[in-house]
């Protein structure tokens, strides 16, 4: 497709907001993917182009956490290949799915994802006791499953990994955050390669959105907001509501 000025005016500001939200509270994909769809980008192109802008933003967050030594490098080693494999499978499934099927799937998927991303997350700050081998196996399996979801759809991937790494893997929030980011970046890269080779990414729109995504992540990462979730959650819900109206009206 050929993006118009209207497309850029809708996508870029919302992708900036998504990057900011993702850096502060997670769940930015619940804004960025709907932004492309609201701007009239076809479903396959929206999923593919969103992967480009989200991957660049995730890279910024990942580098920041790596520099601050928040990554469990021994644990992340098996997670990376599993995330790559899962995301590649998910991305190939997304490419063969029809536009109509993807749109229908958004109706039940969006509220479920929104619920898990927006609900209060009760995580153990210090982590728990678990055998190292069991921890490695659980986190690797989780990376495969969530990676597949990330390649196929995407929003909420980071939050799902964080919940699983802290819940099942008994990791501390600090280590889980960094390990999750490296894993998430791996799944983003795998899906991005598949979508680039398929020609589904709207390159100019994706590059412009990437700049705004990086700016959003950078801004959000440098701010401390005591009541950020009170502002962010209503924004996400409003965008989801608008997307629902657009999807239903097009059926």
Describe this structure as you would to a colleague.
The structure is a single chain. The protein has 251 residues and is mostly helical. It has one domain. Helix content is 79%, strand content 0%. The mean pLDDT is 84. Keywords: Cell membrane, Membrane, Transmembrane, Transmembrane helix, Transport. One of its GO terms (cellular component) is plasma membrane. It holds the Pfam family TauE. Its main location: membrane.
List keywords for this structure.
single chain; 251 residues; mainly alpha; TSUP; transport
Shape estimate: globular
| Ends apart, CA distance between termini | 21 Å
Determine the fraction of residues in helical runs and give it as a percent range: over 70%
**Beta-strand proportion:** under 5%
Low-confidence stretches: none
Total count of domains: 1
The helix count comes to 10
Outline the fold blueprint:
Layout lengths: L4 H20 L4 H10 L4 H25 L5 H24 L2 H20 L13 H21 L4 H11 L5 H26 L4 H19 L6 H23 L1
Structure at a glance:
The protein is an all-alpha fold and 251 residues long. It has helices spanning 5-24, 29-38, 43-67, 73-96, 99-118, 132-152, 157-167, 173-198, 203-221, 228-250.
